[in-house]
Structures are given as structure tokens and as C-alpha cells.
Amino acid sequence: MGWFLFALFVMAVVGVSVVFSIFGRKRRAQQLADSREEALRWYERLGGQILNLSGGDDAAVKQALVDAGERYNAAGGQLDRATSSRQYELARETALEGLAYVRAARTALGLDPGPELPLLAGQRAAGAITKEREVDVQGHQYRASPQATGETPYYYPGGRVSGRPVPAGWYSEPWWKTALVAGAWGVGTMLVFDALFSPSWGDQGYDAGYQQGLDYADSHGWDPGGDGGGDSGGDAGDFDGDSGGDWGGDSGAWGGDFGGGDFGGGDF
Asked: What is the pLDDT of residue 94?
């Protein structure tokens, strides 16, 4: 009798384990399918936006659309290779990066930018340029502006580049791409960053909101003052150089934490 009861107990335990295993597999499969559908939704929206928008002769708009197209191609590649929910989430981030460029292009054209996009974590921390600024770094002029101009044709949607928050805005040149390609800040790029955003260099300095973003990055191990570990080749991967990595950017999208949380980043 004792052996019979023991056998029943073992069979019950095995049965429960099998049931939980089956439900666990189904749950994971559903999560994977949901992540894929979410990534595809933003990817397809990005493709439609690019097809329906033309930059004309506006250099800033054309450049923003080129950047959006790069992210569209990168997101497509990520979707083709994705086998996990996290990889689909990273493809989603890349597509959102592309849509941020499309919104910037539409705004520069005087069109309705459309509905707001989910902000990636790096974008929240980085804030945005709100004042025209111009600095001299080793005899070279660098400009930043909240609007597209003939002198600031390069848009960046905001995010972490090698651990440092770079605010959204229009720039005279894509100086941050050096760090994205190399995976770390070079001396020249660090000087430009400090000149544009450090109170001891820039003509405008930065406000308390940006400092909050730096403090948040520091407290969460983002190495805001260092020259290593960051967006390029980070979470989003597969975008190789200026088309790759995490981009925070959420861009350096690329990808951060998918717009979760209110990170206290500031404007400039």
C-alpha cells in the first residue's frame, strides 16, 4: 500500500511538472509572438513614412530621411535574425529611432509631425537642445540648434553615446558618429561634447535638467563621464558603426529600456 501511494505521489508530481512546462512554453511562445508583432508594427510604419515623404532640395530633410532609411534597413535585418523577445524589442527600438528622424524631417518641412513616439530611456535622460549655440574647438566651429537650418543639417534624436547623454537636436555635423564607430570617445569628440554641453566651456552651458540626466546615468552605471562602454555595439547591435549599436536612443537607439520610466532628463 505504501509503495502504491508513493507511486501515485510521484505520478502527480510528474504530471504537475509536465502541465507547468507546457503552459510555460505556451506563455513564452505568446510573448515571442507579441514582441514580434510589436516590432513589425513600428517597422512597417517606418517604411510607410519613408515612402511617403520627400526631402526635395532641403539638405537637412534629406539627411534626416537618409538616417531614417538606414534604421529601416537595420531594423529589417534585426527582425530577420531575431529569435528571442529581447531581439525583437531591439528591432522595435531601431524602428522607433527611424521614426524619430522622420518626425524631425516632417517638422523641418513644416508638416504635422504626427503622434508622439514612445521615448527610449536614453532619450529621456539626454533631453533636447532648446537654444542656438556655437562653440569653437581647436579652431573649428560647431553649432547646435533646436531647429533645422542651413548650418545645422544633421539631426540626432537624443540618447547615450558611449555612456554620455547627447541631447536631441540639429547639429552642424555628426560629431558623435566617431564614438559610435569606435565604441569609445576620441579626444576630439570629447572636446566637442564638453564644449557644447559643459558649463565651463559652452556659451550657453546647460540647465539643471541635464545635470539630473547625468546624475541618473551615473547612478545607474552608464559611465557618463567615461569614454567606454556605450551605445555603439551595445544593446541594439547589428547596426555597425553609425548604423549600429544601441544608439540609446534610445538612437544610439539605439535602444535603451523602451521608454520605460521617467528619467528626469532635461532640456538645454
From this structure: 95
In DSSP notation, the chain reads -HHHHHHHHHHHHHHHHHHHHHHHHHHHHHHHHHHHHHHHHHHHHHHHHHHT---TT-HHHHHHHHHHHHHHHHHHHHHHH--SHHHHHHHHHHHHHHHHHHHHHHHHTTS---SPPPPPHHHHHH-B--S-EEEEETTEEEEEESS-BTTB-EEE--EEETTEEE-BEEESS-TTHHHHHHSS--HHHHHHHHHHH-TTTSSS---HHHHHHHHHHHHTT--TTSSSS-STTSSS-SSTGGG-S----------SSTT-S-----B-
All CATH 1.20.1270 domain ranges in the chain, comma separated: 2-108
pLDDT of residue 78: 96
Per residue in 34-50, pLDDT (tens digit) is: 999 999 999 999 999 99
Reported pTM: 0.67
Residue 197 has pLDDT above 70, yes or no: yes
pLDDT at 209: 42
Among 1.20.1270, 1.25.40, 3.40.50, 1.10.287, name the CATH number for the domain at 2-108.
1.20.1270
